[in-house]
Amino acid sequence: MACLKEDEILLFVSGEMDKKESAEVLKHTAECSKCRAILKEYKEMSKGISKKSFPPVPKNLHKSIISNLFPKKSFTITPFFQRLWIKPAIVFSSAIVIFLIGMQAGMLIKSSDLQIQTESVPVHPAIDSYLINTQTLFLDYSNFNSLNQLDQSRITIRSAEQLLEKTRVIKGLLDKNNRELNELVIQIENLLEEIILSQEINSKELQNTIKEELIAQQILLRINNFIS
Amino acid sequence: MKSEEKRIREIQNGNKKLFAGIVKKYTGMVFKLIWDLTSNIEDTKDLTQETFSRAFININSFQFKSGFSTWLYKIAYNCTMDFLRKNARISTGLEENNFQSTGNSPDYDSERKTKSLNAALSTLPEKQKIAVVLHFYHQISLKEVGEILGCSHSTARVHLFRGLKKLRQELSNKDTQR
């Protein structure tokens, strides 16, 4: 049998040859050392290409692409001491401390003097169950620990989509003058959007999901304090 | 309906945020394809971004006639070729294309051979190089390689074979010089 043409060997290596022709190539190369050597060279070359080296893909490239496609509206996680609620919290705790010191010193302070004026918030009747559902969702979200729970994560993502709709309804019902509460609801809205965007939760993101869950629980607690 | 097809149909129907999952899944592969053409990290990052922006804007023009990855690779290829033509720059890849192989093959495991192969690949004309890399690294059929390059199946095969022959020549020249 005549030697194989180079293109025949290439057809074989590239997987473009049918079974019958492939068998003939194998039969020939078993007997012909010249063709066998060429085939070996091309096989090694294709194997080398299949293990080709690349620079590492920048770690957060997909995140920056996503954030460019979907620019965030207003949510940023501000440093601890710059957060909106820190100042009122400090004032409130200081008031408590002064009150306790005053009591100990035997000072008479009428309870009416310490009444805290809370802002009135129109509350949607379903807000309680909304808060419980949202708390559960964030808890579920942070509890994923492996890729084997993808089905569960998809269920969570669907719940997040439903809760996002509810969050938007609630946002529409809030008193626009209550900036802090509006801000908190926007933060929840953004965190829900993050969950929906994540699609599939993998172990690398686990740390972030736990952090997000803690942030979300704090925000929900504050919303609850506002309305109760 | 496959989950990816379902997801793409949902995106086409207006649930645009699901596109984030597509970005996550394909960033690495798109990045590698573009890298082969530019051999420059910053350009590759920008062009990967540009590829996904174009895909996002034109998602409704995807008609499921080919695989989604083929459609996306085609955008990446066109995007990169536009960029290279505009900047009148053809990559040589010789300066930066010397990364360690993660493979452990007894036949092709030496660093020297990996470097030689990368250097030889970088000397190929764009279409030949992409045909070789798409077929053997990305495991894409020659029919789809043709779709990405905008040519027929048989032309894609010609690009692949010419590329392989030239690679073999380059590598044997290097061995002779040594």
Jot down its keywords.
heterodimer, A: 228 residues, mainly alpha, 9 helices, 65% helix, rod-shaped, B: 178 residues, Rna Polymerase Sigma Factor, Chain: A, Arc Repressor Mutant, subunit A, 2 domains
Explain the layout of strands and helices.
The complex is a heterodimer of chains A (228) and B (178).
Chain A (H helix, E strand, L loop, with lengths): L5 H8 L5 H13 L1 H18 L10 H9 L16 H19 L22 H16 L7 H24 L5 H20 L7 H22 L1
Chain B lengths: L2 H10 L6 H20 L2 H17 L10 H19 L24 H12 L3 H11 L5 H8 L3 H25 L1
Output the helix-strand order of chain A: HHHHHHHHH
Report the oligomer.
heterodimer
Taking pLDDT < 50 over at least 5 consecutive residues as the criterion, the unreliable ranges of chain A are 74-82, 107-124
Number of strands of chain A: 0
- The CATH class name of the largest domain in chain B reads Mainly Alpha
Give the total of beta strands of chain B.
0
Q: What's the mean pLDDT score of chain B?
A: 84
Specify the structural class of chain B. mainly alpha
Number of H/I helices of chain B:
8
- What structural class do the secondary elements of chain A suggest? mainly alpha
N/C terminus separation of chain A: 92 Å
- Give the domain tally of chain B: 2
**Which homologous superfamily in CATH is the superfamily of the largest domain in chain B?**
RNA polymerase sigma factor, region 2, helix turn helix motif
Instruction: Return the CATH architecture of the largest domain in chain B.
Output: Orthogonal Bundle
Radius of gyration of chain B: 17 Å
Shape field of chain B: elongated
Question: What's the end-to-end separation of chain B, in Å?
Answer: 56 Å
Strand content of chain A: under 5%
Strand percent estimate of chain B: under 5%
Main sheet attributes: strand count, strand direction, barrel closure of chain A: none
